[in-house]
Amino acid sequence: MKIGTVLTIEPMHASQNDKYKSRLVEVSGGKLYIDYPINMTTNKTVFLIDGMQLRISYTNENNDAYSFETEVKGRKNANIPMILLDKPGEKDLIKVQRRQFVRVNTSIDVALRTGAAKYHTVTEDISAGGLSFIMKNGMSIKKGDLIELFLVLPMRNGETQYLKVSGEITRTKMIDRVEIGMVKFKDLTALERQLLLRYTFECQLKMKEK
């Protein structure tokens, strides 16, 4: 990241899906120094408290987009007031795909309910916009069905998050003689979307470490 790089900042545990804009002012001693961010909706200055967990994205000079997670570490007053953030290592930077949500291959437990029918299976992949799951024998599910999903998300810190969301079957397909059902999530809250984004981001980090 070069000095002057524009940063898009998202609080990881906020109740609203806020986004802020800031600028990289200085890099020193394992810290990033940014100017006070501006809320992209209200255009007002935002105060970030120490310990706040953030997801930051930016575009480099080659127009490649990256994201990383960091934490607010304090403030510094110089020519302009600045906020200190932990600087990510190379292994902590994730290249962002040019699509709305990054899809990661992962096998996690999922329970489905459509009408009175209930099924248990595992995912093929997941994103913050939807997922694919293995259609086991006996599943009576077709395109256009509305379903409820109960997801078990194993997080990087050892916690397990449980998520109940609604979705719609967009299509089914065969891959290597296995039928796969594809789901688009519906009516996610900001917190649900942030949890899914956090999970897919952690999956990318895990794959990068292998």
TrEMBL record:
<dbReference type="InterPro" id="IPR009926">
    <property type="entry name" value="T3SS_YcgR_PilZN"/>
</dbReference>
<keyword id="KW-0969">Cilium</keyword>
<feature type="domain" description="Type III secretion system flagellar brake protein YcgR PilZN">
    <location>
        <begin position="2"/>
        <end position="88"/>
    </location>
</feature>
<dbReference type="Pfam" id="PF07238">
    <property type="entry name" value="PilZ"/>
</dbReference>
<dbReference type="InterPro" id="IPR009875">
    <property type="entry name" value="PilZ_domain"/>
</dbReference>
<feature type="domain" description="PilZ">
    <location>
        <begin position="97"/>
        <end position="202"/>
    </location>
</feature>
<keyword id="KW-0282">Flagellum</keyword>
<protein>
    <submittedName>
        <fullName>Flagellar brake domain-containing protein</fullName>
    </submittedName>
</protein>
<keyword id="KW-0966">Cell projection</keyword>
<dbReference type="Pfam" id="PF12945">
    <property type="entry name" value="PilZNR"/>
</dbReference>
